[in-house]
Amino acid sequence: MIMGNHSFQLLTIFTFMWFSFVVTNEHSRDVVQCIDSERQALLEFKEGFQIPSGHLSSWVTEEDCCKWRGVKCNNVTGHVLALDLHSSDSSELLQGNLTRLQSLDLSRNNFALRVNNLDWLSRLPTLQVLDLGVTMTFLPIPNWLFDISHTLMYLNLTRCQLQGSISNAFVNFTSLVVLDFSYNYLSGSIPYNFGNMTSLSVLDISFNYLQGPIPTGLGLIQQLQQHHFKQSPLCELRLSYNKLSGPLETILPQLSQLVVLEVAANRLEGLISEAQLQNFSSLRVLDLSDNSMILNFSSNWTPAFQLETIGLSSCKMGSQFPQWLQSQKNIQRLDLSHADVSGTVPSWFWNLSPSMEFLDLSDNRLSGELPDLSSRTSMLLLI
Ligand SMILES: *[C@@H]1O[C@H](CO)[C@@H](O)[C@H](O)[C@H]1NC(C)=O
Ligand SMILES: *[C@@H]1O[C@H](CO)[C@@H](O)[C@H](O)[C@H]1NC(C)=O
Ligand SMILES: *[C@@H]1O[C@H](CO)[C@@H](O)[C@H](O)[C@H]1NC(C)=O
Ligand SMILES: *[C@@H]1O[C@H](CO)[C@@H](O)[C@H](O)[C@H]1NC(C)=O
Ligand SMILES: *[C@@H]1O[C@H](CO)[C@@H](O)[C@H](O)[C@H]1NC(C)=O
Ligand SMILES: *[C@@H]1O[C@H](CO)[C@@H](O)[C@H](O)[C@H]1NC(C)=O
Ligand SMILES: *[C@@H]1O[C@H](CO)[C@@H](O)[C@H](O)[C@H]1NC(C)=O
């Protein structure tokens, strides 16, 4: 299992979009001041936190709430657009009334926030970015989310201790571009209508307890988008570390524009041949490790992709050393452990990609002489 840490173009574009709508204009602050009712709402909001002395001190000393730490206002209307309190210290939220808020980022706070009531978020009709990752503790997926489903573009509830199943109501999240529910305790199946979130570009629900098949609906995201000439097809699909089962190859034909496909450590099965991967020309990260997958690639196959991360641990690879790896010039991480490969490691293989950082060939029946790799000091090699 390999965890990639890549930032891809689409995410960059998205981040830029996010940045561009939270951005404020420094110069006009002298002219435009915050709106009194929103200032009041922010003060109420702050009262819900137990804030260590010093943090948010500007919230006391400054009259104009647009100059407060973490507050971003529209430079023309003075409406509060974004609240960015990430990495600040805080411990309990109550309520607020910020009807024009577009972005709320409370992620990566050092203290865990205990939330009694975030229902007021449902009264934020323009909220587009909601990043509560790592800080909040919810049990089920909170209901107020569904009230803002039509505007939300970015939703990050990683490590929020979410439990229970994922609601079918996600069908209404038609603007959502990024959905991150990773590292929670979600169970049940992936809703069949996830594919109706037609703007989705990044889906990360890895490290949960989801079971059942990967719905073919996920592939619909892409088909609908191609149909409407949308800019961003589903490009990152991270489903690793769940209990998903069934054959993977049935959804592959619909996912060929993926950049990241991570399904490691599930109970998927099936036979994957080169024909099924022939259209995956954008793929950079492929992690199929620790399932019950059989790979049948011919020795003269030249894939359309150039992978950076390859996880094929525990896949049945056929006894030959995989010749197609010779075409992959940008490999950074390669896990071929426990993959039932035998024979001699070909000499071309040791002419490794200069960016190789991690290589695991352990638990196979490989032979041959290890070349001098002493110059590759930054590489972790497991054999
Ligand atoms: C206000 O900000 C926008 C970008 O958000 C910028 O395009 C515009 O020029 C600014 N207006 C003024 C009056 O500074
Ligand atoms: C929020 O503000 C609106 C008017 O802007 C007001 O009608 C409403 O009662 C307020 N809600 C709360 C919870 O303060
Ligand atoms: C979600 O938030 C976590 C923690 O801040 C971050 O590491 C992760 O990259 C975010 N996920 C996405 C898809 O942006
Ligand atoms: C989706 O939104 C529509 C209209 O806003 C609503 O009638 C419907 O009940 C919602 N569907 C779900 C599953 O929540
Ligand atoms: C999801 O979209 C399909 C069309 O792609 C539509 O037939 C179906 O009714 C939608 N599902 C829901 C729950 O709206
Ligand atoms: C690959 O793309 C071509 C052209 O779009 C299409 O005809 C073919 O069916 C695709 N192959 C697979 C396995 O999806
Ligand atoms: C693997 O592919 C070859 C030719 O593409 C085929 O002859 C063989 O039967 C396949 N093996 C399995 C196990 O499907």
From TrEMBL:
Annotated Leucine-rich repeat-containing N-terminal plant-type domain residues: 36-74
N-terminal signal peptide: 1-24
GO cellular component terms, semicolon-separated: plasma membrane
Gene3D superfamilies the UniProt entry points to: Ribonuclease Inhibitor
SUPFAM superfamilies: L domain-like (SSF52058)
Keywords: Cell membrane, Glycoprotein, Leucine-rich repeat, Membrane, Receptor, Repeat, Signal, Transmembrane, Transmembrane helix
Pfam families: LRR_1, LRR_8, LRRNT_2
InterPro entries in alphabetical order: Leu-rich_rpt (IPR001611), LRR_dom_sf (IPR032675), LRR_N_plant-typ (IPR013210), RLP23-like (IPR046956)
Compartments where located: Cell membrane
Protein topology in the membrane: Single-pass type I membrane protein
DNA damage keyword on record: no
Family: Belongs to the RLP family.
Name this protein carries in UniProt: Leucine-rich repeat-containing N-terminal plant-type domain-containing protein
Organism placement in taxonomy: Eukaryota, Viridiplantae, Streptophyta, Embryophyta, Tracheophyta
